[in-house]
């Protein structure tokens, strides 16, 4: 579910839930419409496709234990399914700062199947302040304070009248602890409709003494039982009573229908977590559309609508659109073209020595490089029709040459492609014994080469998206050149996956992965148009319940969709079957 903090790296000041979300979750609801496609077939086979109902789980908790001395706990919830006696993580919420009554925005998706028992486990942790800059997927749960857990079967939730179940928290031994967790289940809509909106406010009440309020909006859906279920919040605008927020996108899965009630609340942000309500109003998507068309403002009201306030809410943008899913594109002929670049610098160690990261074990046990290549390529190969993959090495002295920072793994001078996963593995093994490991570690040349291929492809069509996997053991020495090449590549159909192997300090590498909302900037001051990098250090994921491959690929569908949507590239229309032959009318009797 990505690195999405409500108590995010800026203390809960970033937006949550108002972007293009649920790409992979929504993908599973859509059968291909563009004729036979092996990638789609593999996707559904991998999902063990059967009759099911997609559900969205929302979470809140009450009366949690306070584990912090000078403030309140910073809770995060992790939800698991129990499969064959073992736990499988299906999602993590954002972190809520300083709250013992958290109401999380991030949802978990699960497929309800009538014919099987589906045990669920919910665990709540107090995330230590020093880990607030760590992406959620990288958090080591053993290093966080355990606030309690609860168990139930999914059928227990859906059979409740309002689809909500409150459970008492217990410790790992089953003894009761302070606090409860409430789980709410809703059937997800299959509609692809979404609406882009941009809000601004005028004349908000000032809640601060020595400065102005720091306002943000929270939008919630009101259930039939009048329970407010948060679906998104804007970023915080500091010291401003007339704020203009960045646009948000709400999908029909979030707002249900245009006539279902929504609650829009405006708060004054407080780092303590005690945000003060500036005003609230109840509305619907249809009413917000009317508000936009009339160019009028809607007044906020005080708590429980007791008093009409002078502060008003306005819409600068309201645009309905069709939100195509990842599988809409894949099933209509779009491809993911896989590319790989391997680090052959001397810091990996002599490949003939067992301690080397490049050591080929005679028993067949794959080294870290082989694990990363196999894991990612075995997933992506089904989305590449010809299965011919560009494969490069960098940081080695090539035969009869000097040190190269981008050379073909297949030893060819004019063709960088190899055939299939086996071709990559074979070329990697052969290269180990034909080059001399050298250095330094430079990413710029291989990223530029991948960008060149992606740019060339755009000239001949827009149905290919490229994925470059870089596997490295060390910190790059051309950081600025790498940033420049990534910024240039952010305009192209390209994503970059970086796996760090070994025990090097990869702190600088995280800068390339704009997980915290700050996009890369080039040496000329140009800002990347989108985040295209995902970095995962293998040692931090190995042994966990999320694999290296899952961590690498989880953002890829979203990056793909962002590229397609920002360029208004739509899936191809389905290929209709040829018309039936025309037969002459039957003879008249």
Automatic annotation (TrEMBL):
<dbReference type="InterPro" id="IPR002035">
    <property type="entry name" value="VWF_A"/>
</dbReference>
<dbReference type="GO" id="GO:0046872">
    <property type="term" value="F:metal ion binding"/>
</dbReference>
<feature type="domain" description="VWFA">
    <location>
        <begin position="337"/>
        <end position="556"/>
    </location>
</feature>
<dbReference type="Pfam" id="PF07002">
    <property type="entry name" value="Copine"/>
</dbReference>
<keyword id="KW-0106">Calcium</keyword>
<dbReference type="GO" id="GO:0006952">
    <property type="term" value="P:defense response"/>
</dbReference>
<dbReference type="InterPro" id="IPR037768">
    <property type="entry name" value="C2B_Copine"/>
</dbReference>
<dbReference type="InterPro" id="IPR036465">
    <property type="entry name" value="vWFA_dom_sf"/>
</dbReference>
<keyword id="KW-0472">Membrane</keyword>
<dbReference type="InterPro" id="IPR000008">
    <property type="entry name" value="C2_dom"/>
</dbReference>
<dbReference type="GO" id="GO:0005544">
    <property type="term" value="F:calcium-dependent phospholipid binding"/>
</dbReference>
<protein>
    <recommendedName>
        <fullName>C2 domain-containing protein</fullName>
    </recommendedName>
</protein>
<dbReference type="InterPro" id="IPR045052">
    <property type="entry name" value="Copine"/>
</dbReference>
<comment type="similarity">
    <text>Belongs to the copine family.</text>
</comment>
<feature type="domain" description="C2">
    <location>
        <begin position="32"/>
        <end position="167"/>
    </location>
</feature>
<keyword id="KW-0449">Lipoprotein</keyword>
<feature type="domain" description="C2">
    <location>
        <begin position="177"/>
        <end position="301"/>
    </location>
</feature>
<dbReference type="Pfam" id="PF00168">
    <property type="entry name" value="C2"/>
</dbReference>
<keyword id="KW-0611">Plant defense</keyword>
<keyword id="KW-1003">Cell membrane</keyword>
<dbReference type="InterPro" id="IPR035892">
    <property type="entry name" value="C2_domain_sf"/>
</dbReference>
<feature type="region of interest" description="Disordered">
    <location>
        <begin position="570"/>
        <end position="589"/>
    </location>
</feature>
<keyword id="KW-0479">Metal-binding</keyword>
<dbReference type="InterPro" id="IPR010734">
    <property type="entry name" value="Copine_C"/>
</dbReference>
<keyword id="KW-0677">Repeat</keyword>
<dbReference type="GO" id="GO:0005886">
    <property type="term" value="C:plasma membrane"/>
</dbReference>
């Amino acid at each position: 579910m990505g690195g999405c903090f409500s108590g995010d790296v800026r203390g809960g000041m970033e937006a949550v839930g108002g972007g293009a979300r649920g790409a992979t979750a929504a993908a599973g609801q859509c059968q291909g419409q563009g004729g036979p496609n092996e990638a789609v077939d593999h996707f559904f086979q991998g999902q063990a496709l059967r009759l099911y109902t997609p559900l969205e789980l929302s979470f809140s908790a009450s009366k949690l234990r306070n584990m912090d001395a000078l403030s309140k706990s910073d809770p995060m919830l992790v939800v698991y399914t129990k499969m064959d006696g073992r736990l499988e993580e299906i999602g993590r919420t954002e972190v809520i700062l300083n709250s013992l009554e958290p109401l999380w925005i991030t949802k978990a998706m699960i497929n309800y199947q009538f014919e099987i028992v589906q045990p669920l486990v919910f665990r709540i942790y107090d995330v230590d302040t020093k880990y607030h800059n760590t992406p959620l997927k990288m958090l080591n749960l053993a290093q966080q304070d355990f606030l309690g857990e609860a168990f139930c079967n999914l059928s227990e939730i859906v059979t409740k009248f309002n689809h909500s179940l409150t459970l008492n928290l217990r410790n790992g031994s089953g003894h009761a602890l302070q606090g409860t967790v409430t789980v709410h289940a809703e059937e997800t809509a299959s509609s692809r409709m979404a609406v882009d909106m941009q809000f601004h406010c005028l004349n908000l009440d000032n809640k601060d003494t020595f400065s102005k309020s720091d306002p943000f909006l929270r939008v919630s859906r009101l259930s039939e039982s009048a329970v407010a279920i948060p679906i998104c919040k804007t970023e915080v605008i500091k010291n401003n009573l007339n704020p203009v927020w960045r646009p948000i996108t709400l999908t029909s899965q979030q707002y249900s229908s245009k006539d279902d009630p929504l609650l829009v609340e405006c708060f004054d942000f407080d780092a303590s977590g005690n945000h003060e309500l500036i005003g609230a109003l109840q509305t619907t998507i249809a009413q917000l559309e009317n508000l936009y068309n009339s160019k009028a403002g809607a007044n906020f009201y005080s708590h429980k609508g007791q008093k009409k306030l002078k502060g008003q809410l306005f819409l600068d943008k309201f645009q309905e659109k069709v939100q195509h899913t990842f599988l809409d594109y894949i099933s209509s002929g779009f491809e993911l073209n896989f590319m790989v670049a391997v680090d052959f610098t001397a810091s990996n160690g002599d490949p003939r020595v067992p301690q080397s990261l490049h050591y080929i074990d005679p028993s067949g046990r794959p080294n870290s490089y082989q694990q990363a290549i196999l894991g990612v390529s075995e997933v992506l190969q089904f989305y590449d029709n010809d299965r011919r993959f560009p494969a490069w090495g960098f940081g080695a002295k090539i035969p009869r040459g000097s040190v190269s920072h981008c050379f073909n793994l297949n030893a060819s001078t004019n063709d960088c492609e190899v055939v299939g996963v086996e071709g990559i593995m074979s070329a990697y093994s052969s290269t180990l014994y034909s080059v001399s490991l050298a250095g330094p570690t430079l990413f710029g040349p291989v990223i530029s080469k991948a960008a060149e291929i992606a740019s060339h492809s755009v000239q001949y069509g827009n149905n290919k998206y490229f994925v470059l996997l870089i596997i490295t053991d060390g910190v790059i020495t051309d950081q600025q050149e790498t940033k420049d090449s990534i910024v240039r590549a952010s305009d192209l159909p390209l994503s970059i996956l970086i796996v760090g192997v070994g025990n090097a300090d990869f702190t600088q590498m995280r800068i390339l992965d704009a997980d915290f909302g700050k996009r890369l900037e080039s040496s000329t001051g140009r800002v990347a148009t989108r985040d295209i990098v995902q970095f995962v250090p293998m040692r931090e994921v190995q042994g966990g319940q999320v694999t290296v491959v899952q961590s690498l690929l989880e953002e890829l569908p979203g990056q793909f969709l962002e590229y397609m949507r920002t360029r208004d590239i739509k899936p191809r229309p389905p290929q209709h079957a040829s018309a039936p032959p025309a037969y002459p009318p039957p003879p008249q009797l």
